[in-house]
Automatic annotation (TrEMBL):
<dbReference type="GO" id="GO:0003746">
    <property type="term" value="F:translation elongation factor activity"/>
</dbReference>
<feature type="domain" description="Translation elongation factor EFTs/EF1B dimerisation">
    <location>
        <begin position="116"/>
        <end position="154"/>
    </location>
</feature>
<keyword id="KW-0251">Elongation factor</keyword>
<dbReference type="InterPro" id="IPR014039">
    <property type="entry name" value="Transl_elong_EFTs/EF1B_dimer"/>
</dbReference>
<dbReference type="GO" id="GO:0070125">
    <property type="term" value="P:mitochondrial translational elongation"/>
</dbReference>
<dbReference type="Pfam" id="PF00889">
    <property type="entry name" value="EF_TS"/>
</dbReference>
<keyword id="KW-0648">Protein biosynthesis</keyword>
<protein>
    <submittedName>
        <fullName>Elongation factor Ts</fullName>
    </submittedName>
</protein>
<dbReference type="InterPro" id="IPR001816">
    <property type="entry name" value="Transl_elong_EFTs/EF1B"/>
</dbReference>
<feature type="domain" description="Translation elongation factor EFTs/EF1B dimerisation">
    <location>
        <begin position="8"/>
        <end position="106"/>
    </location>
</feature>
<dbReference type="GO" id="GO:0005739">
    <property type="term" value="C:mitochondrion"/>
</dbReference>
<dbReference type="InterPro" id="IPR036402">
    <property type="entry name" value="EF-Ts_dimer_sf"/>
</dbReference>
């Protein structure tokens, strides 16, 4: 299964970050070094079983000290019996771009206007709009078990 744990800013500031410092300490040092105000408003830890893989993506994507950063981020928990392909990253980018509210199932009702679709499986796939995400998942032998989407500036953790 998938376990998602949400952390508040107060909880994040107290997380040990090595060398006897907390994330709050490291944040204060970074603010002093960079000269820009920053915060740690929220985080989600996603834990999965052996049958599930996590894939993440940030947009725009920049890597600093092996840590991807961007204004938007997503993590998908995927089940498959095949090696993951580029489609896994494309699905992460899709979640960022199309902001689904739930995964949904093929039998769930579709929105009248495809632009208003909030269920992931019924949305037109961002990388190939001639297909729905559900069709891509079937073709690739993938199952989206859960996902997390973040946007810089958001203050509320999305409730499931």
């Amino acid at each position: 299964g998938v376990v998602k744990e949400s952390f508040s800013e107060e909880q994040l500031r107290a997380v040990p970050a090595g060398e006897g410092k907390t994330l709050g300490d490291k944040l204060a040092l970074a603010i002093g070094t960079i000269g820009e105000n920053m915060s740690l408003p929220r985080a989600t830890r996603v834990t999965v079983g052996q049958d599930t893989q996590l894939v993440g993506y940030c947009h725009p994507s920049t890597v600093d000290q092996d840590m991807p950063r961007g204004r938007y981020g997503s993590i998908l928990a995927l089940r498959t019996h095949r090696p993951l392909t580029e489609v896994a990253k494309q699905l992460c980018a899709h979640v960022i771009g199309m902001n689904p509210k739930a995964i949904g199932e093929e039998g769930d009702p579709k929105a009248e206007n495809p632009d208003d679709e909030t269920l992931l499986v019924h949305q037109e796939f961002l990388s190939d709009p001639s297909l729905t995400v559900g069709e891509v998942l079937r073709e690739e032998g993938l199952q989206v078990v859960d996902f997390v989407r973040y946007e810089a500036g958001e203050t509320q953790v999305r409730e499931e």
